[in-house]
Amino acid sequence: MRKDSAGLITLVAIGLFVTSSVIAGIRVMPVPETPKVLVNQVGYWPDMEKVFIFQANDQSVVAGAVFDVVNVNGTVILQDQPMTYDGLLWHNHYASGNFTSIVAPGTYEVVVRGGGAAWRSPRFAINDGVYDILFERAVEFYYYQRCGYAPTEIVPGYVGHLICHADDGYWVDEAGAVHWKNMSGGWHDAGDYGKYMESEYNTQYTVYALAYAYETCKEIFNGLESKYDTAAPDIVDETVWGAQYLQKVIVPDSLGDARVLCNIFRREKGRFDRMGYWGVPWADTDNVANTSDDRMAASLFISDGDTWAEHHEYSICFVNSAEAMMVAAALAKAAWIEKDFPYWNDEPYNATNLVANATALHDSHVGLIINATYAVNRSQDWSTLWTTLDCITELARWANYTHDDAAWNRYIMESNTLRTRLINRMDTNSSSVWTNIHDTVMALFHHDAVVNGSVGTDLVDLIGRYTNETIIPAANSTDNVFKFYKSNTWIEDPPGTWYFYEYYFHYWGHNWATSTAAAVAMLGYNMSGNQELKLRAADNVVHWMLGRNPLDLCQVESLGTHNLPIYHHRYASIPGNPRGASPGCIPNGIARAPPIETGNWWQVEDLPWYDMRSPIPGFVELGDFRSNEPYITDNAGFLIGLATFIKYWD
Fold it and tell me: pTM of the predicted model, to two decimals?
């Protein structure tokens, strides 16, 4: 199907190994000696710029080399083409070649020749629908992550699992009384069997992202073959699955207000054992409801003492307002796409009920954010207000759809109040105040498009300055041949001494951040026509992710030629899945090598790193969580980035 042609940056940077040894208890592989031809291993649209990168640790190998492009039959399409030397980076020399002139659909390879030797790239495709499979796999990942369900092998070679955790449901109220409620469902997250709502970037963000991707690229999803058991596109099924679970974790507090329970964790002899179980998912509990091994809702602070999660506005049992508002936004947005499919009309999670739950959460939480005179509570962190804006935008759309004028007028007042606060907070010519605000920008854009009918000139100006002052400079750093978003932050080292630090790779890899930054770049391109933003979005959301990175890895499992050898996932315990892999999985991403012994991440050389060990037969061995762990958030961010990229490409 043809792509739709409608019409930072403080990133947590993201994965080359520096030695063949053990670093902080993690075995790593040596820097590859063989030069590599790095390409997008999935492929390119015919009208897309097509650039490959040649990587070698010996400059003499790069000097004077030329390249050919051959098709799958071995026919030479381009021959003896020159390359541009791009310099030294990460202890390697780089040159690039451009084959944009090739537009004919087909399967190709790049061959680099020099000094009597030749090196071939992985195969890649060129066609109009080349990225449709990315949507299909990214959604199938969630199917395999389903909890309280028995996924089957819908992607050949990737086994499912038996039904698990069908008995999730204890929770504790403010008075300490224990209750049982059916809280089965949802998705396994972060490489274990927990289910999380603690952050706005958990289950609720995923439900919102699935609905966003479908709404943004509906034509593509409607054209994909369905593997589920309803007449709806698979992404709608998965959205409804997640929304059904979000309904289950809404409970009344002692005053009758709607609250959201934090997370679902395992208990062992009355104590929480959040990450101690390493077996198959279906043997974690007995799957019989209301028995002693049923898992329980708790905050991260209760389960393992994470101090950042200690403070809760309403009770340590419940998430804070920003997270609850994201649940409401997700439910209302899920309802918006569910309403077109009558399959669920008679279910308790039909569109009307989802909106009712979203409304109850809004009404129970909005008073802490916006007072009766429509003023924003200044004690609220402005950088989390985007979840409330998303919630109100979706509820306003529903009020308009149902002709509820009173609700519409209220939501308009609330959303415009939030919009003004956010625009004013970000409205400055000083780039030093920009933070990682991709979702704030997206929320403002969606509000203007849905509620106001057009994007305001002040927001157009803000996005223009944001992209010009952050995204473009971040991708154009010296010697940045990959155009990967470089990051910066303030570091306190030693205590009391602060300095401004620029880097490529952080302690933690975040493919999510790369993807959402690309989404904002595409919004900037849509408004300004700046071709550089369009190119930088492509560099990050598809080329970097799909193989044109220094590790020669396609970071979407089951696609491309080279995937990770192992994931940090308890699914490695499942017979037939020694790598712990789920098709379509997008892990945390390329990170900085672990600090040697003790030390801080910024004290280690700024080199790209993934844990590339192989599984040992008969022994479950997991990759490093910092780089190889599959958060459902990374797939969610990728869906947002890819959908926005496709929507505004022309």
Answer: 0.94
